[in-house]
Amino acid sequence: MATGMADFHEGIVPSKAEIELARASSRQLTKLLSRDPGGKQLSDFRLRVQADDEPEEVVVIPMSAFRLLTDILTQMACGNAITLMPVHAELTTQQAADILNVSRPFLVNLLDSGKIPYRKVGTHRRIRFDDLTAYKQEIDRKRLETLDELASEAQVLDMGY
Asked: How many CB atoms within 10 Å of residue 135?
């Protein structure tokens, strides 16, 4: 069964206090990530966690989850809203349009022209999150290539850039 956006919480916008705490936490965790004891690749991390007035517990998490946690804290430290979503999640056309920051009709045109894969559920289109991000990465790559070409031409034409 496909996972839809309704299965996930809304984005979390951090408060000022959370931003400061995330900033300090992300710095500490980033230091741990940068260590490579004995040149050996770490496969997991053991964290000691303690809730207020509770005994301390050790939690073992995969390295990939530790990196994700660090990335989340780094984004929170910047004041960015965070939403965690599996890559196989399916989005509505409006949700996909919001992620791309385009209008829904523009997104539907992209779907109908085959630029982004989708499937139909009854009369509704559903877009996989990983397909949407692949499209976004591709247009971002093309945009950067175009900007590099324009910068090169500006240099050749001595336009002061």
From this structure: 17
pLDDT tens by residue, 38-47: 445 667 788 8
Where in the chain does DSSP place strands (E)? 3-4, 44-49, 57-62, 89-91, 119-121, 124-128
**Residue 116 DSSP symbol:** S
Structure tokens at 13: 């916008």
30-44, 69-83, 103-117: range with lowest mean pLDDT: 30-44
Residue 53's pLDDT is 87
For CA atoms 67, 69, 75, 81, the dihedral sign is positive
Give CA–CA dist 76/21, Å, rounded: 9
Residues 71 and 25 sit within 8 Å (Cβ to Cβ)? no
